[in-house]
From TrEMBL:
Alphabetical list of SUPFAM superfamilies matching this protein: F1F0 ATP synthase subunit B, membrane domain
Annotated HAMAP family: ATP_synth_b_bprime
This protein's name: ATP synthase subunit b
Membrane topology: Single-pass membrane protein
NCBIfam families: ATP_synt_b (TIGR01144)
GO MF annotation: an example: proton-transporting ATP synthase activity, rotational mechanism
Pfam families: ATP-synt_B (PF00430)
Subunit comment: F-type ATPases have 2 components, F(1) - the catalytic core - and F(0) - the membrane proton channel. F(1) has five subunits: alpha(3), beta(3), gamma(1), delta(1), epsilon(1). F(0) has three main subunits: a(1), b(2) and c(10-14). The alpha and beta chains form an alternating ring which encloses part of the gamma chain. F(1) is attached to F(0) by a central stalk formed by the gamma and epsilon chains, while a peripheral stalk is formed by the delta and b chains.
InterPro entries xrefs: ATP_synth_B-like_membr_sf, ATP_synth_b/b'su_bac/chlpt, ATP_synth_F0_bsu_bac, ATP_synthase_B_chain
Compartment(s) of residence: Cell membrane; Endomembrane system
Coiled coil: 40-81
Superkingdom per UniProt: Bacteria
Gene: atpF
Cellular component annotations (GO), alphabetically ordered: endomembrane system; plasma membrane; proton-transporting ATP synthase complex
Length: 163
């Protein structure tokens, strides 16, 4: 027996195979290739759209980061400006308070001087009255005569009248 024997069944199987390949190539290859190409194009389009969306997302992320950084910078500037204004306002308030304190101290000093002066004058008047009264008593006790008393009254009236 030969190593490879070709009998009639095998011959018909080979012919059937080639007929199937021919029919497949003639009727099914083009539609299947068209379907495969359509799918390939769709996948390629979706892939390129995904890449484009990915690039857009990256760009928008960078823009968002830039906007966020700008907002933080602006917030920092606003805070620094507010601190500067607060410091300036504090200095103004302190200087106004110092000026008002100085005015109040000067006013108090003037009032004290006025009160001292008034007290001094009042004390002077009282001392003059006491001196006149004391002198009058002493002179009246020491003087016995009417003439001397009249002279003393005249003297007292003159001294008492000179204030």
């Amino acid at each position: 027996m030969p190593a490879v024997s070709i009998d009639i069944n095998m011959f018909w199987q080979i012919i059937n195979f080639f007929i199937l390949v021919f029919i497949f190539n003639k009727y099914f290859k083009a539609p299947l290739m068209k379907l495969m190409d359509t799918r390939k194009e769709k996948i390629a389009a979706e892939f390129s759209e995904a890449q484009k969306n990915n690039e857009d997302a990256a760009l928008k992320n960078k823009e968002a980061q830039k906007i966020l950084k700008d907002a933080k910078d602006e917030a920092t500037k606003i805070v620094q400006l507010a601190e500067k204004k607060a410091d300036e306002r504090k200095e103004i308030i302190i200087s106004e308070a110092t000026v008002q304190r100085d005015k109040m101290l000067k006013s108090a000093e003037l009032e004290i001087q006025k009160m001292k002066h008034a007290a001094k004058k009042e004390l002077e008047v009282e001392m003059n009255q006491l001196a006149v009264t004391l002198a009058e008593k002493i002179i009246k006790e020491n003087l016995n005569s009417d003439l001397e008393a009249a002279l003393a009254d005249k003297f007292i009236d003159e001294v008492g009248g000179v204030k």
